Amino acid sequence: MKLHRLAVPFMMLLMALTASVALAGDFNYISPADMKAKMEQGEPMLIVDIQVADEFAQHHLKGAVKTTAYPVKSDEDKAKLQDVLGKAKKDNLPVVIICPRGKGGAKRAYDYMKENGVDEGRLLILEDGQQGWPYPELLAKD
Length: 142
Known about the structure:
Elements: H1 2-24, E1 29-30, H2 32-40, E2 46-49, H3 53-58, E3 60-61, E4 65-66, H4 75-79, H5 82-90, E5 95-98, H6 104-115, E6 123-126, E7 139-140
Parallel strand pairs: 1-6, 2-4, 2-5, 5-6
Antiparallel strand pairs: 3-7
């Protein structure tokens, strides 16, 4: 009987933890190391940078498309993604989204692009965003 009383709360806790892990895994990510390797190998991809203009000017990945769509909350922010959305829908390249920290803004851009016809299998978020990028040799400045 005691075992049963402990088993029920344990199972509920296990189910809650499993659900939170599933929710956290709703996005595809790419590590800085994998991104660096793809860039150095010249793999074609669409790099979508949503940083604000000042941050983009200070540092961004080589080949990144400037959108200044951060934080991707308003219709005005989302409108800044229209040109890059058109490019993403024309080809089958991976789309890597770069935001300051790889969190909310990147997730909103990811969702917006997915909702507007970009296959989720092609969407990636750079882990830890621009601030976590450890390879200065692959940065560009305006």
